[in-house]
Amino acid sequence: MSEKAGPELTALQAALAAEHAVVYGYGVVGARIPEGRRAEARTAYDAHRSRRDGLAREVRDLGGEPVAAAAGYVLPFPVGDPDSAVRLAAELEERVAGVYSDLVRASAGERRAAAARALREAAVRAVRWRGGSVAFPGLAERSSGTSAAPTG
Asked: Most buried residue, 1, 36, 83, 125, by CB count within 10 Å?
């Protein structure tokens, strides 16, 4: 493994772990999302599954063992109705954007470009879900110290 692969591999593993959590979260979103936004939720779910699978391949390519998904994840708030499902979708996208910002910082070349695309896509989805934007997508949650945590 190259010297650069250490921090890059760590950032890839973090992105993979975040994608596992987002895929789980979209399963919850899908159960409560309003009918008119189900296609949007499905598209986001499929995009995150695809990114998750790609990240697992990249981790292997760098000689790592991809981090496994947790059996469950703690949600940031109860999701019992369509409004909270939409809020959760926005929160998921904002959190994963932050992890991709770390991957942008830790990588170079095509991997960095791909991480920047993932960051942009997550930020755009967050805006669509929330109906508004933040100044620096992926950084707001850093200041509050919150993150989705596996339950085991």
From this structure: 125
